[in-house]
Amino acid sequence: MENKKQKGESKPTKGISRRSFIRGAGLSTAGSVLMTTNAFALDYKEQLVTGKEFGPDAMTIKMKVNGITKSLSVEPRTTLASALRDHLELTGTKVVCDRGSCSACTVYLDGEPVNSCMLSVLDVGEKEVTTIEGIAKNGELHPVQQAFIEHDASQCGYCTPGMVMSCVHLVDNNPAPDLEDVKKATRGNLCRCGTYPHVFKATLDASKKTI
């Protein structure tokens, strides 16, 4: 009598196979992710705030720079640094790192130092911009500028405008700064030439002349 079951032939297993289980688990996980993603997307859309859109073409804006209102045509992607240098030809403001790390592009926005390479020109709005060209008054250098010359506080010159802006802000707002104050004021200004000791001396000397 011939055996109907040969050796090595396994009995059919009842229930769910391993392959079916893995396939089912994968589909369940994918479905959960899709449901979560869709719910998040719907929630995000509900939270969107409708605002005015700009671009991509250039648009005309007005900006007050060094006491004078300027009219310029810029694309929405334009940074304040680019607007000053490329559109208004105020090239005293330098762009070195172009990512807000060196502060060579420092200008004032309503009297406060900012990195102009990190600020959209459209965000300036009604605020006034002051650049290194606007520091001198009535044809006379600011005491900090004069002290930088006397103390040889610049070498290659790339960091100098931003450094001057930081030091002028300190001197104009602190009548008697000490060395630690100067170091703190210039902690974000990077100088590859290493002229920090001269910068410190120049700033301390200038503070005595502005009292």
Walk me through what this model shows.
The chain has 211 residues and is α+β, with helices and mostly antiparallel strands. Among the domains are: 59-134, Roll (Ubiquitin-like (UB roll)); 143-209, [2Fe-2S]-binding domain (DNA polymerase, domain 1, Orthogonal Bundle), CATH 1.10.150.120. Helix content is 38%, strand content 12%. It is built from six helices and five strands, in the order H-E-E-H-E-E-E-H-H-H-H. The protein has helices at residues 18-47, 80-87, 143-150, 160-173, 179-185, 196-209; strands spanning 59-65, 68-74, 106-109, 112-115, 128-130. It has a five-stranded mixed sheet, sandwiched between helices. Strand 1 and strand 2 form a beta hairpin. Helix 3 packs across helix 6 (196-209) and helix 4 (160-173) packs parallel to helix 6 (196-209). It is extended. The mean pLDDT is 85.
Form type: extended
Helical stretch tally: 6
Q: Strand order, biggest sheet?
A: 2-1-5-3-4
Biggest sheet descriptor: 5 strands, mixed
Q: Count the strands?
A: 5
Briefly note the CATH topology name of the domain at 59-134.
Ubiquitin-like (UB roll)
| Protein structure class | alpha+beta
Distance between the termini: 120 Å
Indicate the CATH architecture of the domain at 59-134.
Roll
The CATH class of the domain at 59-134 is Alpha Beta
Rg, alpha carbons: 32 Å
What is the helical fraction, as a range of percent? 25-40%
Low-confidence stretches: none
Strand content: 5-15%
SSE arrangement, N to C: HEEHEEEHHHH
